[in-house]
Amino acid sequence: MAYSRKRIWGWYFFDWASQPYNTLLLTFIFGPYINELLGDGTAAQTAWGFGVGAAGLVIAFLAPVLGAMADTAGSRMRWIWIFSAMYVTGSAGLWFAAPGDFNLVLILACFALGLVGMEFATTFTHAMLPALGSREDLGRISGNGWAFGYLGGLVALVVMLVFFAESASTGRTFVGLEPALGLDSAAREGTRFVGPLTALWFAVFMVPFFLWVREPPPVVPVRGAVGDALGGLWTTVRGLPSRRSLFSYLVASMFYRDGLNGMYAFGGIYAAGVLGWSVVDTGIFGILAIITGALFAWLGGRMDSARGPKPVILICISVLTLVAIAIVFISPRALFGIRLEDGSNLPDIAFYVIGALIGAAGGALQSTSRTMMVRQSDQDRMTEAFGLYALAGKATSFIAPLSIGVVTYLTGSQQLGVTPLILLFLIGLVLLAWVKPDGDRAE
Description:
By secondary structure, this protein is mainly α.
C-alpha cells in the first residue's frame, strides 16, 4: 500500500504548530511570568495548579464523546477547525496579563480555553497516525513528528527570548535588545506578547496541515451520529475490563502521563520560585530541554520501530521517577543533602541537567506512548480510542496539579510540593507489567 509523503508532512506540521503552547505558555515563558506577577512562588504554583486542573476536567469529560462522534460521523477536520479557533482565541487573550492590572481568573480562563482546544485537536490528529504508514513504520513516523514538533517549539522559544521576552530588571531581552515591534518593556509587553505570538504561530503553520491532510467526507449526519457514538462508546467502556492489556495501558498511562504533564507545567514555576530564576533563565533551561527532547523523540521512534514501544516507555518512566526524586533535593542552599556555600552555582547546573533528562525522557515517552495506543486499539474506532487515551491522560490530570497545589499550600514549600509526581510515575511503572506489546490481539 502506498502512503502519501505530503500527507505525512502535513500531519507533522500539527506538532510544529501546536508545540509552542506547551513550550512558551505552559512551561518556559508564561508560567514563570505568572510567578513574577504574583510575586510569590507558592501562590503562583497553587493558582497554576487549580487553573490547569480545571482545564483537565473539561478535557477528560468530553474527549471520549467527541472522539466517538468523529469515528461515527467520519469527519475529524471539522472538529479540528473548531478546536484550532479555541487554541488561537485562548492564547491570544494572555496578552491582557499586564503587571498590576490584570484579572487572574480571566487570564487562567483564557489559558484553559486554549489548552482545551490544543488537547482536543491533538486527540483527533493522533487518531490519524495509523493511516500514515505501515505498522512497522508507525514508531518512526510518530518519533519524527514529535521531534519536528520539538524543533518548532525550540524555534519559537528562541524567537521569544531573542526578540521579545524582557528581563524584569533590565527591560532587555536575552541578547540585550529592546523588545521588538516597539513593545513597552515597562509594561512587560514583550513577555506578554508570548500569547499573541503563540496564536499567530499556530494559525500560520496549520496551513500545511489543512492543505495536505485529507479525510473522507462524513458518512452520516452529525445529528444521527450522536446517539450512535454514545452507544458505541458505552459498549467500548463496558468491555474494557475484559481487554486486560488495553485497560492496563490506559490506567498506567493515566498516571505516568499525569506525572510528566506535572513536570512540564511546574518546571518553570519551580525554578523561578526555588532557584530565583528569571523568565530568561527559564527560557535557556527550556532550550536545553527541547533539544534533548527532539533528539530522543527521534531516537526513541527508531527504537520503537525496531523493538516496539514498551521497552522505550519503561526506560523513560524509570528515568523520570529518578528525576522527580532528585528535584526535591535541589535548593540554593543544599544539593542532595550537602550544604553549599552562599552563591554556589551547583544547584543551577544540577537543574539544567534535570531539564535535559526531562526533555529526553519526555520526548521519547510521548512519541512511543501514542504508537503503543495504536497497537492496543481497534483500527475502525481509532478516534474513539484516542478519546479514551485523552480521558486516561485527563481523567486524573487534575491529580498532579491539584495535589501539587494542595501539598505546596499545606507545607508552604515548593520542594515538598512536587513529591506527588514520584508516586504517579511509580504507579504507572507497576501497571505496565500487565500490558502486552501487541495488545489483547496477541492472546
